Amino acid sequence: MSLEVREVMQAFEGRRVLDGVDLTVPAGSVVGLLGPNGAGKTTLMRIVFGVLEPDAGEVRWDGRTAGDADRRRWGYMPQERGLYREMRVHDHLVWIARLYGVDRKQAADYADDLLDRLGLADRSRDAIRDLSGGMAQRVQLAVAMVHRPELLVLDEPFAGLDPAAVEFLMAVIRDHVAGGGHLVFSSHQLDLVEDLCDTIALIDGGRVVLEGSLRELRSASERRALRVDVDVDPRWLDGQPVGDVATTASGSRVALEPGAEAATVLDAIRSHTDVSDFGVEAPSLSELFRAATGRAVEDAGA
User: Fold this and answer.
1) CATH level 2 (architecture), domain 222-281
2) 86 — alpha (psi -120 to 50), left (phi > 0) or beta?
3) pTM
4) Pairing of strands 182-187, 151-155
5) Would you list the domain boundaries of the chain?
6) Beta bridge partner(s), residue 24
7) pLDDT for 197-246, tens place per residue?
8) Of 20, 61, 70, 279, which residue is least crowded by CB atoms under 10 Å?
């Protein structure tokens, strides 16, 4: 069983937002729909859930066009959070589960389980208005999951979260997938999700510009980076086939242009200073995006 998006097109006021998007989400996998703000990710999420009707294309589930009955077995965490601030946390989850047809006792059990896994068991009787932003976001995730959905769709779930909250969310996401669930989430925080996704779809300007596992995308790329344990002055590399020189916590990372010899670039650095530790690294997601679009992801989002 899988979710399939086929040739989806969408335009608003004459501007093409989605331009023939294809996407497949198999069972037991995490698909990351990544890209800058304004790339079309949220529009695609709304089409998947039937909030918007696409101009062309379709959303399929289990080999057929998805309908309302299918979507009732899915869970959605929208980018625009929507919690009733006066309700108590546990009551809110039970109410949502009941709307999905879960009986009251089972809804309460599901709510208890999720609140415990999300570190909110001691806040279950609190009003949502009394929670911090990070805790409220955990509740928003629980709202999307409380009816035990087969497919979970999260729109920018990590935005604004501290590292501890990110770890909580990632653990719950992994549990959902390990149980055979489907998960697709969108984010513009490319490097944050490198270790979470089985498949990555990079979207820009309404088109999927790269798709595959991170290992596949990195293997197919000619781009690499040289990591060294010293601070590199970019002037040392004048005339060398390199790109950006970034300062890291342990030294520098030098982007190598396609065809560049890492040993030659390393020799140029060593002609100015001693290097005791170095290595060649695969490109980051940000570098893959730049290679696919010709610009950095932060520029694309502007």
Assistant:
1) 2-Layer Sandwich (3.30)
2) alpha
3) 0.78
4) parallel
5) 2-218, 222-281
6) 4
7) 888 888 888 899 888 888 888 888 888 999 999 999 999 999 999 998 99
8) 279
